[in-house]
Amino acid sequence: MTTHPRIEQLRFTRRELQRAFAGVTEEEASHRLMPMNCLSWIVGHLAGHEYRYWILRGLGEDALPIANTLAPYGQPATTPSLAEAWQIWQEVIELADPYLDGLTTDQMETRLTFEGKPHFESIGSMVQRVTYHSWYHIGESQAIRQLLGHTGLPEFVAQFGDEAAYRSEAENRS
Known about the structure:
The chain is mainly alpha-helical. The chain has six helices and two strands. The longest helix is centred in the C-terminal third of the chain and has 25 residues, at 123-147. The N and C termini lie close together (8 Å).
């Protein structure tokens, strides 16, 4: 089975997130420039978003509860260690990817049920939301890095190559 093009885009975005954080130290990652969250919070927050969508809702499992509490949205700010945030992020990705790899175009058009209620968006829209949400925080991370005095930061997304090139939905119908 071919990986759905939206999942390929999400994976490209994840690689860009990692590229955006190259060279950030633990001290810099936990430094908070008010009123923004710190860099390590961003990593933990994005891990939590994917966790809620793909593990809690998609798989119906709570295999890594810390992913939901490390950097929660709408709660008091946290400043986790960058190493811990990346570790949790990586564990979430490893748990989520088999689920995401199995999604067909038909499944992307359905809605997940969570706590007895259908999610307000289709799975495909959820994938797009996670992708766009990640890009928002990638931009934010670069602004924070500039304020921390970093120079030579990425100016634009990496080369697409085959890994992020456009493919039509028809090419992926399963």
